[in-house]
Structures are given as C-alpha cells and as structure tokens.
Design goal:
This is Lantibiotic biosynthesis protein. By secondary structure, the protein is α+β, with helices and mostly antiparallel strands. The chain contains 13 helices and 6 strands. The chain has 2 domains: about 20-130, no CATH class; about 155-355, no CATH class. Strand 2 (about 50-55) and strand 3 form a beta hairpin.
C-alpha cells in the first residue's frame, strides 16, 4: 500500500469507555498507588490505552470509578482482562478491612442522594420505596459511564474534560507516589496550591478570583449545611496562623502565571501551571468556535435553578465559559486528591481571605459577582 493510500484512510476508531467501579471501604490511596497507577502504566506500555481517568465517589458505597478507553475496539477484551487481573490481585493482597456499617451508611448516603439527585432520579434507580443498596466491599463492577454533557458543555466539552481528567489523574498518581498525601496537612497544602494555580490561570485577576472563591466557599458551605459557630471560628483562627505564608505564596504563583513564567515554579506546581495554561487555551478556542453548549435559562444564566425553563445553546464568551468550567474542573481535581467538600469550603475561605484580608465582609459575595455555575459531579 503506497503512502498516498495510507494517508487518505480513516483513522482507526478508539474503543468505548470501560467503566469499572472498585468498591473499597478504606483510604483509596493504596488502591490508586499500588493498583491503578501500575495498571495504567502497563496498559500504556502495551499500546492498549487511548485515555483514562478516575474519580472517588460514594454512590452505593465508597469506591473508585476507573475509566479506561481502549486504543481500538479490538483491544477492549485485552484491556478488560489485564484490568480485572490487576484489580483482583490487589483486592486479594490488600483488602479493605473496614466493614461498612450498612445501617449508618445507608442513612448517610440517602441524605447525600437527596442533596445531589432529584426524587425522580431516586425512583428511577431504586423504586418508590427503595433505599440505596450498598455494593459488597472489595468488589469490582462494570457500570455504564454516563458523560455529563450539560455540566461540561456538550460532546466537545466532555471530550475536552476527559483530556483534562487524564492529566489531573496522572498528577494525583504522581503525588501519591512522591508526596506525603497520607498526612492531612500535606494534602490540604497541595490542594490549596492546585486551586490557586487553576483559578489564576482561568481568571487572571485578583478581584475575579476573590469573587469566585466567595461563591465556591458558599456553594459547599451552604449546600452541605456546614456552618456552625465552632467551625466558622476555627476557619478564622486557622487563617490568622497561615495568612502571611499564604499571601506570599499566592503572590509568587500569581506573578509567575500572569507574566507567563511557569518556569519560576517548581515540581508539580510548574507542571500543573503549564497544563492549566493549555487547558485555558482549549476552553477559549472551544468557546470562540461555538463548541461548548450549556443549559441556559431566560436572562442567559448558565446552570439555572432546578425547575426553571431551560434551553441549550452555545456559550461563546470565553470568560463565561472559563467561569462555568472552573468549578467542576477544580472540584474533580480535589476529589482525586482526596480533599472532601468540607476541605474545599475551608480552603476556598482561606484563599478569599488572603485576597481580601482587610475587608470585614470578605466572605460575602459582591452584588455584581457572577453566580456559581455548576453543581457537584455525579459521575
């Protein structure tokens, strides 16, 4: 076959996503570091993997959702075989020893379900009177991957998100291997830097970043009813302890990114800043080409309130697209890192205070600040 013929042949189509939910009622970092990371490396080394990513989730019990996209449809059986063998071997070697308290967790997860899903979705999944079942601990299940087209901007937006998710997953797996993520302060410190880098990369303005952090803080703080006098006091006291170092580090990162000098950063900070710059460019390009389609209510507000009349249309303003996508992008990186919604509420409070330290109303949104444009991920 000559070169001309080869060049005009269509590319071989990638396989469909393989979605494996690994139920593991313990800290997922050993599962990620000792199973998922070498599995991904093995599949890449064999030339079988087009893309992958993972998230942590709670539905039907604590688990890791591992998405593997074979390089071709013909490669799918081999990808499944290798993945199943690796997962089963890990679960046999290092099972989660914690036995789930089904009475407690079922009630807790029922509350979580009501926060994130509608009653119609509950009935569709579990019946009118059904409670959410818990999957067996130390088990794996193939459960269909349902891309969130509304959240990420339609098919093109989901494809972009999946590209980003792979980079985010790679970063977290490297950090599990090299950083002290088993120590809570280390996890929170790294999460703070990743949030700082992404927000500066997307918004590039201190006031806009502060407004975003106010909204982000209240989104988690209010939605999960986290406000207590003791917790709010702890937030303020903890900020006073870290204020000087936090402002100094923010200034260093802000200068490096806004002056297009990520080389002034080091290690994971530099690689994350470089990735976020590429991600921002792609979001802007997609928006300008009309490729990002979101639910919109009257008045042009993306992510309208539940029950509002909506239509789906392209968001062609790059600033609006960046603002909409920053929330789920940031949240899902924190999810992979192991920072929960309480942590996100706390860290966004620290960041907004570092930007508005002299303002007694720092944690209140300004009247013209853009609204939060996304809800929790339901993958």
């Amino acid at each position: 076959m000559d070169a001309t013929t080869t060049a005009t042949e269509p590319a071989v189509a990638e396989g469909q996503w393989e979605a494996i939910h690994i139920f593991y009622a313990s800290d997922p970092k050993p599962l990620l570091g000792e199973c998922v990371a070498p599995l991904v490396e093995d599949l890449r080394g064999r030339g079988l993997l087009a893309r992958y990513f993972f998230i942590n989730y709670w539905l039907e019990g604590p688990h890791v959702r591992l998405r593997l996209k074979p390089i071709t449809e013909e490669a799918a059986p081999e990808v499944r075989r290798i993945a199943e063998e690796a997962i089963d071997a890990f679960l046999a070697r290092r099972p989660a020893l914690y036995e789930v308290d089904s009475d407690f967790l079922t009630g807790f997860y029922d509350d979580m379900f009501r926060l994130e899903y509608s009653e119609e979705e509950r009935v569709a999944r579990y019946g009118t009177d059904g409670r959410m079942p818990l999957r067996p601990n130390n088990s794996r299940h193939y459960i269909e991957y349902e891309p969130e087209y509304d959240k990420y901007g339609g098919p093109h937006g989901v494809e972009l998100a999946e590209w980003h998710f792979e980079h985010s997953s790679d970063l977290v797996l490297r950090l599990i291997d090299r950083a002290n993520l088993h120590l809570r302060p280390s996890t929170l410190g790294i999460a703070t830097q990743l949030m700082t880098i992404m927000s500066i990369s997307f918004l590039a303005d201190r006031d806009r970043i502060a407004d975003f952090m106010v909204r982000y803080h209240h989104f988690w703080h209010d939605w999960f009813k986290l406000s207590t006098g003791e917790r709010d006091t702890a937030y303020k006291e903890n900020y006073e302890e870290v204020a000087v170092d936090l402002r100094r580090r923010f200034d260093e990162i802000f200068t490096a990114i806004t002056e297009d000098r990520p080389d002034r950063l080091t290690g994971f900070s530099q690689s994350w800043a470089e990735h976020c710059a590429r991600l921002r460019e792609r979001v802007v390009d997609h928006a300008e080409r009309g490729l990002l389609v979101f639910p919109v209510a009257d008045g042009g507000r993306a992510w309208p309130a539940a029950g509002a009349e909506v239509r789906r249309e392209p968001i062609t303003d790059p600033a609006a697209a960046l603002r909409i996508l920053l929330t789920p992008y940031m949240h899902m990186t924190n999810n992979r890192l192991g920072a929960n919604v309480v942590d996100e509420s706390y860290l966004s409070y620290l960041l907004l205070r570092s930007l508005r330290d002299d303002d007694p109303t720092a944690d209140e949104p300004s009247s013209d600040a853009p609204s939060m444009d996304a809800t929790a991920d339901r993958r």
